[in-house]
Amino acid sequence: MAFLNLSDYETQARKILDTPVLDYFDGGANDEVTLRENPSAFGRIPLHYRVLRGTDRRDMHTRVLGHELRTPIIAAPVALLGMAFRDGDAAAARAATAAGSIFVLSTFSTTPVEQVVDAARGQVWFQLYVYKDPASE
User: Fold this and answer.
1) Within this chain, do residues 39 and 94 fall inside the same structural domain, yes or no?
2) Which phi and psi (to 5°) does residue 62 adopt?
3) 42 and 68 both lie in a single domain
4) Is there a single domain that holds both residue 49 and residue 81?
5) Range with the lowest mean pLDDT among 41-50, 64-73, 91-100, 103-112?
6) Is the domain of 25 the same as that of 65?
7) Domain that residue 135 falls in
8) Of the given ranges (24-28, 64-68, 75-79), which has the lowest mean pLDDT?
9) Structural domain tally of the chain?
10) Within 10 Å of residue 79's Cβ, how many Cβ atoms?
């Protein structure tokens, strides 16, 4: 199957993921207002393509916090990614760094940090939640 848009990935996910796993990844926080609003928000951003113009000079390199990237997209942290795919975090890290980007490992990863860093062969950031100790209040 050729994946042309996000809907194609969602269709495939519905075919291969168990219902509880799909429900986890397909859901949103609280009353899911943001989940409902995202499609229309993205729909309000016009993309103006120019067919075969400047394709010989395409360069997406950029710098983020001092790190050189070949692509301006950073792989965001996804909690419990290993529920969807056994090698989820490590595979995503390999893909991000192969694309010349940065992988951000979730605090709630199913894979040890060291294993993900070894798999990435590139830059890995870590999403850290700092919780306040209730005993200190």
Assistant:
1) no
2) -155, 175
3) no
4) no
5) 41-50
6) no
7) 59-137
8) 24-28
9) 2
10) 14
Rounded to an integer, the average pLDDT of 32-60 is 84
Tokens of 65: 């916090």
pTM of the model: 0.76
Q: Tokens 């796993």: give the residue.
A: 21
Q: Based on the domain organization, do 136 and 108 belong to the same domain?
A: yes
Tell me which residue has tokens 């990844």: 25
Asked if residue 81 and residue 109 are part of one domain, the reply reads: yes
**DSSP H helical ranges for 1-136:** 6-16, 19-26, 33-43, 88-98, 113-120
Task: List the end-to-end C-alpha distance of the chain, in Å, as a whole number.
Answer: 54
Going by C-beta distance under 8 Å and a sequence separation of 6 or more, which residues neighbour residue 120?
A: 90, 93, 94, 96, 97, 103
Residue showing tokens 């798999």 = 119
Beta strands 62-64 and 67-69: pairing type? Answer: antiparallel
